[in-house]
Amino acid sequence: MKKITKRNGRLFIDIDGKQVLPIAYTSYLPSVASYDKFRDIGYKLFSVCLYMGDMPINGFSGIKQLDDSIWKTRDEYDFSVVDKNLSIAIENSDAYALLRINVNTPSWWLKENPDECTVMENGAVPYQSAFSDKWIADVKVFLEKLKEHIAKSKYADRVIGWQIAAMNTEEWLAPSWKGNESDFSVIAHKYFRNWCKNKYKTLDNLNYIWNTKYLSFDEILVPTGKERASRDVEPMVDLLKNARINDWFYCLNERYATASYDLTKYTKQLFNNDILVGCFYGYIAAGAMWCGHSGIELLMNSPYIDYFASPFPYVDGRKTPKDWFYQSGISTCHNKDKLWFLEADIRTHKTKLLCDVDTKYVDKGNEYMELPTWHGLKDEKQSFWHLTKAFSKVLCSSNAFWWFDMWGGWFDTPAMQNLLMRMRLEYEKEMALPFASESEVAVVLDSQTPYAISGAHFLKTVFRQLCELGFVGAPYDLYIKSMVTSEDLSKYKLVFYMAPYEINNADVDLIKTLTLNGKLVLLNGKKYLDNAENLIDVPDGFSASDLKTYCLKAGVHLYTDKNAVIYKNKRYICITAPEDGDYVLTLKRDCLLTSFITGKKIKTDNKKVTIPLKCNQSELFIIK
């Protein structure tokens, strides 16, 4: 039986009683990837990308089809690419495979079903519509065919997980680019009208709430980009004035969540529960409402989903010393006994533009694919820094992850391979020991926040606020507001409610309990409550300096007095420097620090040690 098990506070993959570490490698381009090299350095888990259809992974980047499709015509399937890619990933080894199955439809399906396709405001048709029940039904048939093929293959016992990937960039993201596109398909309009009927029952009710004069539900249309943009004119959204616009977003998010739920449930039941099932979803720190991810609670509570995945956010194009924070309530996910794979698509000095790998994937001169975020780093030393930063984050928080070698060759030097082998060994050593978070700060994220505030205000009060929090010098844990409990929060010294949609009576009672017990509670985004002892409420956000002050007031231990990104648990501490200089680390007790990269040993003096660092440099230390 394949399942997720918890042991000593940590989550593992369990295959018929055998424990498998949730650390993996993957690539979009198996033919030029490094699966063999990662097997040679001891990696046992590999994600393999498969494509039901022949369409690009998104509708705006100009990236073309990345691999052969499986579903060729209505009655023709070609599974040879499945065998080829599994052979590349796990041939002649005892490794396991997670299938990342892109279930966006083939181009012939789009032509066959024009009313079931996503239609952008400019008329473009990138893929099927998430509102299409026909698409869902056809995907289920495809999954049955894929299961039949794999069951007959020599890899049947080695394929342990199916990740159902769909929509924009495979991440269950709504068709949005530059903020204002949406799905204007026939099926989207029809679904929205039915959704409104179910919610309001009568036109009189709807017209009263929307302040409209519809004579029929058939008159209702998906809001235009201009209409949706008008919603965001002020920081705080007028909920009455924008009820129609918000209802569209509620409808969109509900459908994305239920479509993902339906397909993951079907996959789980297809295997009689003997398969791990996952999906990309729940990016609530990056504006879940706009991308269709505000239905995270449905999926987090689903018995049919074993793991989620998301990349580190692209904070300033990843060329920054700021924190690459988690995009969701990782601690809530852990409490639900579900893995969250961090997708470490870390650029290195070996990273090439996709057009330089092969112009069959993207044309040279493509403006989007030559943005700075796609360029590699200057040298191997900087590559080590970024790899160390990514690894340290998951190591200190006991999370799952995979190295995502997008176009292949990103990690192909002897030195990087040796580093990644040592990281695997260190991760294995750490996972064998008991885990408990050392964070004294809890952040509470709200999946419903974007319904109440503009995109610009969300950027200021959530996304950028997490960047500021990353410079405070103390680790923190992330929870989802609708699922967090008083027991969860009682162990922290400072609790930060980050721009919640609302503070209801239950929240007030919980905040009162926290403050009476000496915890400091912060709120931002707007004025919710009057400031009081142990309660600070501000309308916008806090600077890193403000947050340091409040952490000290709450008794939170700060591991450095300068702005720096700190990842910390009982056995490790990692620091990333935002500028050149000497950084003083202050531990809770005297200890011996050993640099993971160089092996250099440093003893603290009166619990302190000075570390010289360059801008963007990350140093991971083992604590004894």
Characterization of this structure:
The protein is an alpha/beta fold. 32% of the residues lie in helices and 19% in strands. A hairpin with a 3-residue loop joins strand 19 (565-568) and strand 20. The longest helix is centred in the middle third of the chain and has 28 residues, at 243-270. It is globular, with a radius of gyration of 24 Å. The two termini are 38 Å apart. The mean pLDDT is 96.
Q: What is the share of helical residues?
A: 25-40%
The coarse overall form would be globular
Number of domains: 4
Give the end-to-end Cα distance, rounded to a whole number of Å: 38 Å
Radius of gyration: 24 Å
By CATH reckoning, the class of the largest domain would read: Alpha Beta
By secondary-structure content and strand pairing, the structural class works out as alpha/beta
List keywords for this structure.
624 residues, five-stranded parallel beta sheet, 25 strands
Give the SSE layout.
Blueprint: E1 2-7, E2 10-15, E3 18-20, E4 23-26, H1 35-40, E5 45-51, E6 71-73, E7 76-77, H2 80-90, E8 96-102, H3 107-112, H4 133-152, E9 159-165, H5 186-200, H6 203-210, H7 225-230, H8 243-270, E10 276-280, H9 288-291, H10 296-300, E11 307-311, H11 330-335, E12 339-344, H12 354-357, H13 380-397, E13 400-404, H14 414-431, E14 441-445, H15 455-470, E15 476-480, H16 486-489, E16 494-497, H17 505-516, E17 520-523, E18 535-537, H18 544-554, E19 565-568, E20 572-576, E21 581-586, E22 592-595, E23 601-603, E24 608-613, E25 618-623
Parallel strand pairs: 4-13, 5-8, 8-9, 9-10, 10-11, 11-12, 12-13, 14-15, 14-16, 16-17, 17-18
Antiparallel strand pairs: 1-2, 2-3, 6-7, 19-20, 20-25, 21-24, 22-23, 22-25
